[in-house]
């Protein structure tokens, strides 16, 4: 049997208050007290992995070693079939403005445009299938770890549609749906998302019978 967290403290390897709140809500029914790496003063490790699993483990292990407490991290992004899986681990990087593109920060419309531009170069019959991926990694201070992978398959559309999502949501149509992630109600979207898929697997193994 896989080692279990049990009730008690869990470090969430993030400095993002929104992500901490989201994960706290998901784990609250299981008696888990969530702390963020940011609140403990732990530095953010450089994400040097070449895939989602490597980056998630890198973050979880850094938090577990720095805190001495079992830690959870996630790494997620968009994979486009016709682009050989890109942007992948560079999903957020594609939204970073270069010096000639205006003020520093992320421009998700620009990122969506980059993806669409690369697809357009392949012609009107290009394969538009894509998927969002989420990897959750648990790491114990002694080095043991567990990984849970979630996927939300779908396809890309253009132009962007919807105001309720973030990132690439306005161009992503989940499988068996006609609306984009950004057109779906957030509560409904969260139930069919890649993160929901990964969390369902984590909960089943860590807190199931």
TrEMBL record:
EC main class here is: hydrolase
A Pfam family this chain is assigned to? Ham1p_like
- List the active-site residues: 75 (proton acceptor)
User: EC number(s) in its UniProt entry?
Assistant: 3.6.1.66
Query: What does the record note about the cofactor?
Result: Binds 1 Mg(2+) ion per subunit.
Q: Name one GO cellular component term.
A: cytosol
Q: Which cofactor does it need?
A: Mg(2+)
Task: Write down the chemical reaction(s) this protein catalyses.
Answer: XTP + H2O = XMP + diphosphate + H(+); dITP + H2O = dIMP + diphosphate + H(+); ITP + H2O = IMP + diphosphate + H(+)
One GO BP annotation is: nucleotide metabolic process
Top-rank taxon: Bacteria
Q: Which GO terms describe its molecular function?
A: dITP diphosphatase activity; ITP diphosphatase activity; metal ion binding; nucleotide binding; ribonucleoside triphosphate phosphatase activity; XTP diphosphatase activity
For this UniProt record, the keywords arranged alphabetically read as follows:
Hydrolase, Magnesium, Metal-binding, Nucleotide metabolism, Nucleotide-binding
Key word Magnesium present: yes
**InterPro entries linked to this entry:** dITP/XTP_pyrophosphatase (IPR020922), ITPase-like_fam (IPR029001), RdgB/HAM1 (IPR002637)
Q: Where does Mg(2+) bind?
A: 46, 75
Record's keyword annotation contains rRNA processing: no
To which protein family does this belong? Belongs to the HAM1 NTPase family.
Task: Explain the purpose of this protein.
Answer: Pyrophosphatase that catalyzes the hydrolysis of nucleoside triphosphates to their monophosphate derivatives, with a high preference for the non-canonical purine nucleotides XTP (xanthosine triphosphate), dITP (deoxyinosine triphosphate) and ITP. Seems to function as a house-cleaning enzyme that removes non-canonical purine nucleotides from the nucleotide pool, thus preventing their incorporation into DNA/RNA and avoiding chromosomal lesions.
* Oligomer status and interactors: Homodimer.
Q: Supply the name of the protein.
A: dITP/XTP pyrophosphatase
